[in-house]
Amino acid sequence: MNKNLDAIFLYPLPWVDDEARMFADTARDWANKEIISDRLNYQKNYQELFKEKRRILSVDIGFQRLVLAEDNGGFGWNTPSSAPGIMNVFSEIGRADAATGYVTAIKYVIFATIAMEHNMNKNLCDILAPQYLADEIKTLSLILPGAGRTGEETPLFMGRSIRARIEEKEDAFILDGEALRPMGCGADADLFCIACADSDRQPCVAFVPAETKGVIKGEPIQQTGLDACRNADITLKKVRIPKENCIKRDGVIMEIYIWLNLLLGGVSIGAAMNFHEILDEWAESRVIKGGEPMKENPLCASVLAEVADDIATARLINFSLSHIMAQPDEWGKVGDKGIYTFAQMIGSRVQRLSLNALNRGMELMGSAGYAKEWHVEKHWRDIKTIQSHLAGLASNAPVMMDVSRFFYNSPEVQK
Amino acid sequence: MKNFDEFSRPMEYTSPMDAHLRSAIRNWAQKEVMPFRRSFDEDWLDHKLIEPAFDKLMGNKGLGIQKALFPSEVGGWGLGQSDYLFRVSLVMAEELGRADTGMAVASMVSFWPLITITVSPYLNMDLCRQIAPMFVNADKAVFAANAMTEPQGGSDVENMELLKGKTLKTTARLEGEEWVINGHKLWPTNSGGVSSLFGVPCTTNPGSDDPNAFAFIFVPVKTPGVAEGNPYEKAGMAADKNSDIWFDQARVPKSYRAHGPGTDKDAFYQLISMGQVASCGFLTGAMMNMYERLYTFVSTRTYNNRPLKENDAIAGIIGRIAGDIDICRILAHEAAMIGDRRNTPYGDPIISPQTIGRIRNIKDFVSDRAVDIIGQAMDVLGAYGADREWDIEKHWRDIKIIQLWMGGKQLCQMEAARWFFNCETL
User: Fold this and answer.
1) How far apart are the first and last CA of chain B?
2) What is the phi/psi pair of residue A193, to 5°?
3) DSSP-based three-state secondary structure for A345
4) Of A161, A385, A395, which is closest to B317 when you measure between CB atoms?
5) What is the pLDDT along chain A (415 residues), one digit of tens a residue?
6) CA distances from A24 to A17, A94, B221 (A)
7) Mutation site for A-interface testing, chosen from B404, B405, B414, B418 by largest number of A Cβ within 10 Å
8) Going by fewer Cβ within 10 Å, which terminus of chain B is more open, N or C?
9) How many angstroms separate the CA of residue B51 from the nearest CA in chain A?
10) Distance, CA of B264 to CA of B113 (rounded, Å)
11) B417 touches chain A (CB under 8 A)
């Protein structure tokens, strides 16, 4: 059987150019050499061990600078046309370790809000890139709208509560917010990107260095997965930031969701593809019913088929999303409602498919799928954690509202 | 609905022990487990937090459930000889599972090998007299394990209908007045240094599918020639330790065989249905606790500035979650009652294909629903779903193995097909 993942999980080749394929190969080499070949040694203390692996990927190889314009010392992948290639790279990272993919994706998404060609904020790029994309590895964290608290009446983004508030005061902005939940890395973050609402209740995005006075990190939260990415709730008490650290642009929060769905979809697909590799080896070597190879049993084969089907479908539809994003003249800009809707819809589906692949395939591995030794359970926990974080709230009900609002022209549905 | 206990259960099925046992275990859980369970994952190897709670559940200075199966003549509760063995087991499993499914599994698997000698009509009083003292006289928790799974073939041993034990590689050879056991087992609950006693399915004639070749033999852990590996690290179920076990010329008295040729297989086969009914209880217990935590979240967090539970779309999701718990609990009680009807004119023997097929089918269904809805509940919590603090993610990690064990989903499907469609060659 062909063990080349790209040859069995087909994807639209013309959408990924030679340069993008080269980057993906580099990411695959990093994954194989730095992590996959030595996994048994990484069962404990992921956070510290993977920080070094992330440094190699981000700094030595330089992937943290993919999103920057060449003027800023980046790779120049700062246009939506790079979406298929960048998604492919994140699948390779996720194949090794979803947490590394997750942290790296968040960094890319945050910088995408200021570095993308059509929305370039050169001033902020010049300020932030040297500090957070330099030789020392830095961690970025993202706080998005989500669950509100009863008794609180907050500004909303598509029904989700924006719990951080920002107010203009003379030459600066002041931020406040209580027990805000980052998408990840809150405990270790050097810089926060926070969705907040201004005095007109309009959404905007603020960049807040973690060492700023009034930024209070809570205790690290123990979580299901993404062990290399320690989270903590964040409280902001009259946090003062320069005016240029705030972006008030129509669609900026949608842009963040769009990129997140694409890249975290890539990460989960990568983890699921590595699970396929492990399951393939298992099904080939395992004998059941007193002599029959597992993969030759029709019932087991049907489960294997579902696993492959889910991963292949997830990969194809995520590539479709990347292609839609890469064609702004055809479908609209990243940040438009239509693209946002497709990103939410496809992103949600990709996570469900990836998790289902793991859930079904684990059935065939029995206890081995549950033991840390085989590494399957880690992929399973990581994908589930990404899915919960990405959904953000109330399972996919808000996503369904987003989709329904767009397709059926019902603008008042949980706006 | 006032609380989780109002999820449906057929009250006609209630046994005389239900109310007292539920109350006792629930109080124990509230005091000994709930305050500490979020730290159990880090305690998976040492059991410093977990062990004292086990002592208070299983030992004589606590609730003493480890003596439940034994006849009263040897100091037990006589549960194995009662008409409500399965129903009481379900109650225990549910209350324990609500607190921690790992603790539920570890404590109740101690019953598992003992079922072969304590449950009518397979009561072996002589062996009960020999084995009971280690359990009924102990102040601390005493564990037993059913050393069943083997390295190659996994749960083949549970597929008795098809394989009849012919894939067993662990052998028993009679030498004078002793059995000599050789073999390698994987993954038994309560291995890795926890148990005092193993029940070992093995063969007296390797490769044979003759039911007379199947033997079930008790092996005290301290027997020379018995060795255990270190516990495996897993996704969850920290209170349940699992490891490799090796038997190298391990010698035990001849009387430690559960019964004898032919009968051992039948007595052992009872374990399948008992294990599946207990699994249903673990799952409904975990689901009910998930409901408790979910209730708090959806009542205190908002979408569109209204409580989550007051939004029609979200209500559709959580309504389905609660509805599934309700249905699963009814089914779990029905599975238990199928077991307890075994001695009635309208019941079927516990090792009959219809009983095994029906109970496996219910367990398969309840497992699937539990995995699905506990995962959905995590998604309802969104960015908080993966937090240990909300307890739901722990249940999600813990219960996945319940779906996978005892031959997993596929064997459940085969047993169901065999019964419902009279399949003859599966």
Assistant:
1) 45
2) -110, 115
3) helix
4) A395
5) 457 898 899 999 999 999 999 999 999 999 999 999 888 777 677 777 788 899 999 999 999 998 888 888 888 889 999 999 999 999 999 999 999 999 999 999 999 999 998 889 999 999 999 999 988 999 999 999 999 999 999 999 988 999 999 999 988 999 999 999 999 899 999 999 999 999 999 999 999 999 999 999 999 999 999 988 899 999 999 999 999 999 998 899 999 999 999 999 999 999 999 999 999 999 988 888 767 888 888 889 999 999 999 999 999 999 999 999 999 888 888 878 899 999 999 999 999 999 999 999 999 998 888 998 889 999 999 999 999 988 766 767 888 888 888 888 877 666 5
6) 11, 12, 53
7) B404
8) N
9) 22
10) 11
11) no
- pTM for the predicted model, two decimal places: 0.94
Q: Check CB contact of B185 with chain A, cutoff 8 Å.
A: no
**Residue A246 identity (one-letter amino acid):** C
Token pair 């319940």 in the structure block, residue: B402
**Cross-chain residue pair B410–A392, CB shorter than 8 Å:** no
Q: Return all residues near A22 (Cβ < 8 A) that are at least 6 apart.
A: none
In terms of Cβ atoms closer than 10 Å to its own Cβ (0-12, 13-18, 19+), residue B426 is middle
Chain B, residues 315-374, CB within 8 A of chain A, namely 316-317, 371
Q: Is A412 helix (H, G, I), strand (E, B) or coil?
A: coil
Place of tokens 């087909």: A10
Q: Which residues contact A304 (CB under 8 A, 6 or more apart)?
A: A279, A283, A295, A361, A364
- The answer to whether B134 and B285 are in contact (CB under 8 A) is no
ipTM, two decimals, is: 0.93
The token pair that represents B332 in the structure block: 């779990």
Can you state the percent helix, strand and coil of chain B, rounding each to 5?
Answer: 55, 15, 30
CB atoms within 10 A of CB A51: 16
